[in-house]
Design a protein that fits this description.
about 400 residues; single chain; globular; 6-stranded antiparallel sheet; 9-stranded mixed sheet; alpha+beta
Length: about 400
């Protein structure tokens, strides 16, 4: 269906597609394969994740890139995960092997840009990261999280190898395993890199770039405070997006591993949604043309920075939520693109406290118990004060109407 729509777009809207350097059909085809039932959700270290790794490595080879793993294009590493709490016969930890896929575009430059995205997802829901009420045995295809980001890496790799552009930086293209289990693949590579870390100029991370809202055009950029160069370069290159930025280098994706090695980072993200970490994160919900816009913006940003000196690195304030301890959850997904007072819900997990109390996607939380809520940070601060079994009043706005709900945590 998409290919028919794409043909119509190309035929009737050719005047606009000529300006594009990114191929929308390539993006679709990558996501279609990576988020197919055939790959069973790409669980870390599964045979299906290895199939995805082979697909990525094959594309890198086709583009003429140099292998830069510790085993050709593959960067293998060992790690351990906690045992399944539902299986008393399993050991406390289980050893596994993970595989990043790494390729290098050598422009003969002194410094290198890293462009990365994680390619693992939740598999069949057995690693306890799913937000589905009964996840086990269900395929979590992860079209947005994060086949969309991997498609971005692959299409940028194609673009930069096929176009004769004088680059003053080399580019390292990398897809990470084990992100869903705690940024494992990126941490492992940063601890034992295949190029010197001091030669890395900056790192661009794509995690969930496939659900751009065509109305708001909101693009979230995390890590903007890690270098003084980001703000100016973004202002000069952005002609389309409504940018929402966060200065912190530490966040819940692979840019964190590079930031902790004193490397400037930027994480691109089109926003949370109700299909996050659920079996419903499928390709038909991806905004392909929106993703093309994101990748085009990245090209412009890279080219703008290409004529600049190596980026300076700044340490940033860690997100306050990183210092907090949470004993409870409401089971809600915040809308991180929401700019007004309160915290709007993108989705509510089945059978969690919020759902049982009648909260719905689109509700705006303005108060938890005695705590006024003006932002996600206010919500996190308030949530950290509660314990399991507490009953709290939650005040929401739903379709302009103020409502009060009683939530049992």
């Amino acid at each position: 269906m998409y290919k028919i729509l794409l043909f119509s777009f190309l035929f009737f809207g050719c005047f606009s597609i000529k300006a594009q350097r990114i191929d929308a059909e390539n993006i679709y085809n990558h996501i279609e394969y990576l988020a197919s039932d055939y790959l069973q959700g790409r669980a870390t270290s599964s045979q299906e994740e290895i199939k995805a790794a082979r697909y990525i490595a094959k594309k890198f080879k086709q583009f003429g890139l140099e292998p830069m793993g510790n085993d050709g294009f593959y960067y293998t590493f060992n790690y351990k995960v906690s045992k399944n709490p539902h299986d008393s016969t399993s050991p406390k930890t289980e050893p596994r092997e993970g595989t990043n896929v790494v390729a290098f575009l050598d422009n003969g430059a002194p410094n290198t840009i890293v462009i990365g995205a994680h390619y693992d997802h939740l598999g069949l829901g057995y690693d306890h990261n799913s937000l589905d009420a009964n996840p086990e045995g269900k395929i979590h295809n992860g079209a947005d999280d994060n086949a969309s980001g991997v498609a971005g890496v692959l299409e940028l790799a194609r673009y930069f190898t096929e176009n004769e552009i004088t680059e003053k930086n080399n580019i390292l293209f990398m897809t990470f395993s084990g992100e869903e289990l705690g940024l494992i693949g990126s941490k492992k590579w940063c601890d034992n890199p295949t190029i010197p870390l001091e030669k890395i100029n900056y790192m661009l991370n794509m995690d969930m770039i496939g659900r751009l809202n065509d109305s708001s055009k909101k693009l979230l950029l995390y890590g903007i405070g890690t270098s003084s160069a980001w703000n100016d370069a973004i202002a000069k290159t952005n002609t389309y997006f409504s940018i929402k930025s966060d200065s912190a280098g530490i966040g819940p994706s692979d840019q964190t591993s590079f930031y902790l090695k004193d490397i400037p980072v930027l994480h691109l993200f089109t926003g949370q949604h109700s299909d996050y970490h659920k079996p419903s994160d499928d390709i038909e919900k991806i905004n392909i043309e929106g993703e093309v816009k994101v990748i085009e913006f990245m090209i412009d940003l890279i080219q703008e920075l290409d004529n600049k000196p190596k980026l300076s690195f700044f340490k940033t304030m860690n997100p306050e939520s990183g210092k907090m301890s949470f004993k409870v959850t409401l089971g809600v997904m915040p809308d991180y693109t929401y700019d007004e007072k309160g915290m709007r819900l993108d989705g509510v997990s089945d059978n969690k406290p919020a759902a049982k109390a009648g909260l719905k996607g689109g509700d705006v939380i303005i108060q938890l118990a005695q705590f006024p809520i003006e932002s996600v940070k206010d919500y996190m601060k308030a949530l950290s004060t509660f314990k399991k079994g507490d009953t709290i009043k939650v005040i929401i706005i739903r379709n302009g109407v103020r409502m009060e709900k009683e939530v049992v945590l």
